[in-house]
Write a structure and sequence with these properties.
mainly alpha; 0% strand; globular
């Protein structure tokens, strides 16, 4: 008794172009007549149907020409700050500084600014980590490329403090890590015998004071009161004010 089952349907999710390229009958059926073949002297070229070929090319073209999303751009830029190449890290910081050069009032109308606002914590975490690496040994700040990177890290933080909306979005944990790193580097640079490194202490001191002024008040309060080294923090704040008066 002849079977009534037909050929299995194509799987869902596989492109028409791929199916057309793979589905070839193994042998002609009895009721099908084999198409007449051209003489051997005439070359024969086989190609996928025009519709399928067009669709396939269209899909590949869309993948090749798909633009990178702005959020991906800012993520790549922030991650580049941690580059082991100082020049690449400086270039990434310059891009962040360019975005932060927009006034706080005009910021919401800028797509790049909005993307940066969504990655504020990642930006500050990255800058904190890079500062810990660059300032780890004061003698490493002497080469021009490392000293230039240190200045751009400080400059980016200074520009960041211009935007209270961004500063107030920092959590207690992120703010604590940043303030602890800045305080440590303030003490180290202020005690340096090299003038250009000692001068960095003035700018670090200014950033600490600006963070206390622009950060979310509750986060600042929790940082100060929740820190076990509260007496030391009082001493450091007094020292910051003293450095500010001297400058």
């Amino acid at each position: 008794m002849p079977s009534r089952l037909g050929r299995p349907a194509a799987r869902a999710g596989i492109s028409t172009y791929a199916n057309n390229a793979r589905d070839e009958p193994s042998a002609p059926r009895p009721h099908e007549t084999e198409p007449e073949r051209p003489p051997p002297s005439q070359p024969q070229f086989t190609q996928p149907p025009p519709t399928a070929r067009t669709n396939g090319n269209h899909v590949r073209q869309e993948v090749a020409e798909a633009p990178i999303q702005a959020s991906d751009d800012i993520t790549i830029t922030i991650s580049s700050i941690l580059s082991s190449d100082p020049s690449r890290s400086v270039d990434a910081l310059k891009m962040i500084q360019k975005i932060l050069s927009i006034s706080p009032e005009a910021g919401p109308s800028s797509a790049h600014y909005r993307d940066l606002a969504e990655h504020t914590e990642g930006l500050i975490e990255t800058i904190t980590l890079q500062m810990a690496h660059v300032f780890e040994r004061p003698e490493d700040l002497l080469p021009d490329e490392n000293f230039r990177l240190a200045k751009h890290l400080i400059q980016t933080l200074n520009n960041f403090c211009d935007h209270s909306f961004l500063a107030e979005s920092l959590t207690v944990e992120i703010l604590t890590s940043l303030l602890e790193e800045l305080t440590l580097r303030l003490l180290e640079t202020d005690d340096s015998t090299t003038k250009k490194i000692k001068d960095l202490s003035k700018f670090i001191n200014m950033i600490i004071l600006r963070l206390f002024a622009t950060g979310r008040r509750m986060s600042i309060f929790r940082y100060v009161t929740g820190n076990q080294a509260f007496p030391m923090l009082t001493f450091l704040l007094a020292r910051c004010l003293l450095c500010c008066c001297r400058s």
